[in-house]
Specification:
By secondary structure, the protein is α+β, with helices and mostly antiparallel strands. It has two domains: about 90 residues, Winged helix-like DNA-binding domain superfamily/Winged helix DNA-binding domain (Arc Repressor Mutant, subunit A), CATH 1.10.10; about 240 residues, D-Maltodextrin-Binding Protein, domain 2 (3-Layer(aba) Sandwich), CATH 3.40.190.290. It contains 14 helices and 16 strands. Strand 1 and strand 2 form a beta hairpin. Helix 1 packs across helix 2 and helix 2 crosses helix 3. The longest helix has 18 residues. The radius of gyration is 22 Å and the shape is globular. The relative contact order is 0.14.
């Protein structure tokens, strides 16, 4: 029998204030700058778009500095910030010293989107999955990335997606979505497409009232499964916790440190329900439809507005028009049959220009 021949690989890792940056991450940063797109760079490396976003977000959050920014002028696109370039340069310099060669990156051409393809990047929603399924039946190619509301806005600004779904609550105004769009509207001409209402609440295995859930989290009796940073559900939970921190006379940071599982993150409402059903957590914020999928208890928090955004450049593209027409049609009301916790308003599909 032939003995397997072992293979060995040396790997260079860069540690910045305790955060590890490896060769694959440096390649990602280089390709983002080269291709002008996080989506194109992640495809070139064979990694999921949401994975690329999560790593970039963690790096920026840990360092307290931006490494990616929107290109100035033109029609969007991403590039490295000055600090991002410094990271790449430092790593590349050490790589040459250690290995005596340049970090190799295969030549990659830009990835172009066919005219009848729709790229969605934003918050997760079961009804939206059904809507996109109808568009697939109409022979529109669909790419979907559940990256959360805030990253969805960023994806639109960078010109990487056609539509993003958002449900962001602003406690200062009591409004959903519009304050966040106005905040970022200077970056590109964002257009709001009115969507529908969803019921958000606490998902648990047992029947627990609202106050007992909040107290149970803060007293460390209940384990949380949290949503990813930038998701609308995470924004809603943090708003509740900030109010509770003020009521107790402690800082938000101190309060969240008391919560078991605050850093345990998943990307979809269904993932929240699944972790609770498997007893990997006791409570999470999600929509009623996800709780009912797993036969779990649902304690209402609010009815939220789940809207969509695009740009003036994308609003007349055929796949975006098809999406809007579907929202306006009675077919959405048929699709919501069997999904509890939704309301389809008369203004669904209405276009609002906020500038």
């Amino acid at each position: 029998m032939t003995t397997p021949k072992p293979a060995f690989k040396l790997e260079l890792k860069m540690i910045i204030d305790g955060f590890t940056v490896d060769e694959d991450r440096i390649r990602l940063l280089i390709l983002i700058d080269r291709l002008g797109s996080i989506l194109a760079a992640s495809k070139a490396l064979g990694i999921n778009y949401s994975t690329a976003w999560e790593w970039i977000s963690k790096l920026e959050r840990h360092l307290g500095k931006k490494v990616i920014e929107a290109r100035r002028g033109g029609r969007g696109g991403a590039r490295l910030t000055e600090y991002g370039r410094l990271i790449v340069e430092e790593y590349s310099r050490e790589y040459r010293r250690v290995f005596g060669a340049e970090l190799s990156i295969e030549p990659v051409k830009g990835i172009h989107k066919p005219p009848h393809k729709l790229i969605y990047a934003g918050s997760h929603d079961p009804l939206l999955e059904r809507i996109l399924g109808i568009l697939r039946e109409r022979e529109i190619e669909i790419e979907v990335y559940w990256i959360g509301s805030m990253k969805g806005i960023a994806s639109i600004i960078l010109g990487e997606s056609d539509i993003a779904g958002i449900h962001l609550y602003d406690p200062d105004t009591g409004e959903y979505n519009v304050p966040f769009i106005r905040k970022h509207a200077h970056a590109c001409d964002i257009v709001l497409i009115k969507g529908y209402f969803r019921e958000q609440g606490f998902i648990t295995r047992d029947r627990i009232n609202y106050n007992d859930i909040v107290n149970g989290l803060i007293d460390s009796r209940l384990r949380l499964v949290n949503r990813n940073i930038g998701s609308g559900s995470r924004v809603l939970l943090d708003s509740i916790l900030r109010t509770e921190a003020r009521r107790r006379g402690i800082s938000f940071d101190e309060l969240r440190r008391r919560i078991r599982g605050y850093g345990f993150e998943v990307n979809t409402h269904v993932d929240v329900a699944k972790k609770i059903a498997l007893n990997e957590a006791d409570v999470g914020v999600g929509i009623r439809a996800a709780a009912e999928m797993y036969g779990l208890n649902f304690t209402p928090i609010t009815w939220e507005r789940f809207d969509f955004i695009t740009t003036t450049d994308s609003i007349n593209k055929i796949p975006v028009k098809e999406f809007i027409n579907l929202l306006r049609s009675g077919e959405v009301r048929r699709l919501v049959s069997g999904l509890h916790g939704y309301r389809i308003p008369q203004d669904a599909g209405e276009i609002v220009r906020l500038l």
